[in-house]
Amino acid sequence: MKRFAKVCATTVIAWTLTACNQPASPPDTHDADVQAIKDTEAQWNRDFIAKDSAKLTAHYAADAVLMAPGMASSSGHDAISKTLTEMLSDPALTLKFQSSKVEVAKSGDVAYTQGDYTMDMTDPKTKQVIHDHGSYVTTYRKQPDGSWKAVADIATSEVPPPTPPPAPAKKH
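Above: the chain sequence. Below: its structure as tokens.
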């Protein structure tokens, strides 16, 4: 009987030690991450108002891609910076966006937002100001310093493209 009691006690002690050695669950930072991303997008809007290309580019990870209506996609900081600098050279440019959804992965290292945007810019062909609006999805990756950087920023215009002029009449 003493031997059985020793085996049971040893088993209980082993289970207790094993349970104590389990890695702790990572802290739940979901709500703080959602707020950090909302704050990031609010700052991003302010940086567009200020037309600050360097600050705008800083919202993107080094390997990010930017896809906007009517433009070729831009990959990486240099290409994104060039695209943003060209956009900002337009005196008519205004861009505002607002997320309607912010989702953070359970892992806490990736997230996305989706929402709507409005943009005014000069049409390069007609030189007239065009008013665009549409929706966007931005995917974020948490950086080692805890900040969030965009890795994929994609917008889709809801404004139909202009109707092309009619083809010239064929001569018979």
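Helices lie at 2-20, 30-50, 53-57, 76-88.
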